[in-house]
Structures are given as C-alpha cells and as structure tokens.
C-alpha cells in the first residue's frame, strides 16, 4: 500500500513536469516568451519539489536503518501529515520499528536465559578465540581452575604451567584428562573442546568437568569386581584342598590319637595318594594363577618405534594361520593408507592382536564361513586405529562391562587376563581399547 502511494506520487509529479515541458516548448515556438519563462520557472519548482520528496523519503528510511543499527528504538515518525503517502510510510516504519524492538527484547531475554543456565551449570564452559582471548567463562570453570576473572589463557600460567601448555596445544575435538593440584587439593579434570564459527569468527568451545568422584566410584567398582573374581578363583582352588585334606586326616587320626601304620588298608593308601595328587594339582593351579597375577602387574614400559602397519598385521595373520584348527577361518587385513606407520612397541601390540585374534577364532568354532578382519587406518579425529572384526557368536550385553576385569573369564580354560592385559598395554601406549558386539564383534585399538 505504501509503495503504491509513493509510486503514484512519483508518476504524477513526473507527468506534470513532462506536461509543463511540453507546454513551455509550445509557447516558445509560438514566440510567447513570457509564458515560456513562467513555464520554465514552474518546471524548476516541480523538479525541486520532486527532489525534495524523494530525499525526504530516503532520509527517513536512512534514519530508520541507522537507528536499528545502533539499537535505538526511540525513533518515531509523525503519522499525521497532509501528504497521504508520507503518512502511510511513517506509520509502516513505526510498525516495523516496534516489531524489530520486540524481536530484540525477546532475543535479549533468551540470551540472558541461556547465560543463566551456563552460569548455574555444574560443568565449566568457556570459549577461546584464535588469539587466546577468553570471550565467555562461567563461574564453574573459574572455580575449577581457581582463577577469576578469566580473560586470556595466559592467566592459566599462574595456575599451572603444564595446564597452560595443554591449552596452548589444544586442538578441536580433542579430549584430555588432567590432574590439577593446588592448595585445595587435587582435581581430575576432563577437558573436551569443539570448534564453533559465530559471525564469521572461529572459536573453540571448551568444556571442563571435575571427574574425581566418577573416577573414585569407577576405581571402587573395579576393586570390588577384582576382589570378587580373585575370591572366586581362590575359593575354587582351596575348597577341594580343604575337603580332601580333611578326608585324608581321618585316615591318620582317630579321635585324639594317631592311627598305627599297620592299621592302614590298601584302599586307604591308594585314596591318600590320589588325594595328595589332587592337592598337588590344585596347588600348581594356584601357583599358575599367582604367576598370572604377577605377569599382569609387571607389564614393562613399551619401547616404541615406527612400525609399518601392513607388516605388523601380516605377521599377526601369519601367526594365527599357523595355529592348527579343525575349522579354519578366513583372515583378511586392510590398511588405509597403505604406507601407514604406527609409533608402538610392536611386540606388545602383536601380543594384543594375537589375543584378540585367538578370541575371535574361538567365537567362530563350529561356524561355517567364519571371517576375521584386521583393519588399520585414521579416524575422523585424526587418530590411528586398529580394528579386529569377526562374525562370530558375539559377546552377551551383560558381559560387555566385565570382560576387561582381570581374571574374569567365561571359558573352561584360561586365566582371564588376556583382555585386561591388552587394556593395560594400550593404556601404557597412551591409547584405549573399545568393544562393540551386536551382529558382529569389533574390538578397536585407538592410539594417540
């Protein structure tokens, strides 16, 4: 409506100017110079009025946008004018101003709402620009890092030099665990970061969480599981020894007196010998169990070197294929890129892969078309990994949280330290081991 009225005003004014020009030209050729001069004056006046009208409209729109740019919503245009088109324009600009003001107020309220949520959150949150300036930091992160106000990561140098160096080298999508010690004690901090782009500016969103309590609970839970397994294994070994010892003792003692050698029968001597053999076997099993425990606790520090991933997997494949098996499985390897190298202790990682490969073969017993895949590559977080995949029976969901507990096993034979030892070797390498078991089972070794 407004644009149509302005359009009509412009058309009418231009039409009047054109008519005046035509009339003035006609009078000029009729040699009516006085009338022609008056016509020229009218043309000048009309042109001036047109320019003034256009400038007035443009000026109002320019004032309006300047006010919006400066977040000044007090600007108001008069709505009672003699010119209908300008009156409607002013009314529309005032309405638009009210709408933008309403949106601005809602946006401010929403921003305050989100900021209050961030302030009350029990995890630390702050954003860093490429120059190290901290644009936002909630009170929790200032409490966790024991410094306020946080304006630049250089301030962390006053808190802890190693923490400052960590933040200097922090990369997008990186996760770190750091133990911060100060006069308040020690805190185990989980640090995660995510890249953001806001208004064309690259930022790093950092989330800091004190996981000391979670680690304590996890550690306690791990000790409970370990003690339960140790107790189970030791009791299984000791119980037969105690029972057989009591039975043999009855042969040698009657009441408070010892049995005379001449009173022993051949069956008693035979049963005594068998019982001692069982006690010996149980003792050897217990010694083997203790040796496994010592082996688990004495994993040496890895001697790392650059190793060709392809050669590593080919060696593991060869060792697995050499093991005799009534039901052979197909073993495949894949390395992407082909020239990929790993900075590892090849002997320890080979031990891990062989253990996972043996477990995979056992899960494929009695199954046709059994397959095992060893895949090595680089994931989306630019970390190198090795996956061990098989299409066996899989791991029951209720056991997924138990399989890495030392000495836990569902097999009739074995010590139950293979996976826990593999996890410890990966921890010494600064990496981790993960498992997924649905239709197929996949163990993933991730290296830092």
Automatic annotation (TrEMBL):
EC number: 2.7.13.3
Annotated Histidine kinase domain residues: 229-448
GO cellular component terms given for this protein: membrane
Compartments reported by the entry: Membrane
Gene Ontology MF annotations: ATP binding; phosphorelay response regulator activity; protein histidine kinase activity; protein kinase activator activity
GO biological process, one term: osmosensory signaling via phosphorelay pathway
Protein name, per record: histidine kinase
Lineage of source species: Bacteria, Pseudomonadati, Bacteroidota, Flavobacteriia, Flavobacteriales
SMART domains per record: HATPase_c, PAS
PROSITE patterns: HIS_KIN, PAS
Cell inner membrane keyword on record: no
Membrane-traversing stretches: 6-29, 36-54
UniProt source species: Maribacter aurantiacus
Domain PAS positions: 110-149
Keywords assigned: ATP-binding, Kinase, Membrane, Nucleotide-binding, Transferase, Transmembrane, Transmembrane helix, Two-component regulatory system
